[in-house]
Amino acid sequence: xxxxxxLPPAPVAKSDAQWRAELSPQEYAVLREAGTERPxxxxxxxxxxxxxxxxxACGTELFRSDHKFDSHCGWPSFFTPLAxxxxxxxxxxxxxxxxxxxxxANCHSHLGHVFAGEGYGxxxxxxxxxxxxxxxxxxxxTAPATDPAPNA
Length: 152
Ligand SMILES: [Zn+2]
Prior knowledge:
It is a single chain. With 152 residues, the chain is mostly beta strands. The protein has a single domain, classed as Peptide methionine sulfoxide reductase (Metal Binding Protein, Guanine Nucleotide Exchange Factor, Chain A, Beta Complex). Helices cover 9% and strands 28% of the residues. It contains two helices and nine strands; from the N terminus they run H-H-E-E-E-E-E-E-E-E-E. The protein has helices at residues 16-22, 25-31; strands spanning 51-55, 61-64, 68-69, 77-78, 87-92, 99-104, 110-116, 126-130, 135-139. A hairpin with a 5-residue loop joins strand 1 (51-55) and strand 2.
């Protein structure tokens, strides 16, 4: 896949002006311009509470606390999304590196990148390295955990 590729139309499609009005400048820079927050600065990097992580732009449930692990990389890390179709993965060859970008499938906002084969010992050996500012955490302390199996 190419970087500027033919994604299917986003179910939630807004103009840049709308996104700018709804998001803070920091959120806009990451979610809509594929920026990266500085490592170890995000509010969810060391969040161990039980719950759901939603897309901060559109509210779609993207990740669960069950799938979060301590990567010590400076950003929240998950070994799988809540469901494979919640995110879009596409090649990102910016910055002279080959990476795989992770987007919200519902609104095409930038979430972070996914890295494979790093040996973290998680069930998938994937690290979804996601900006805290791309997410909104929702406590789910009273709800039972749903299927903890990774979505292959
Ligand atoms: Zn979204």
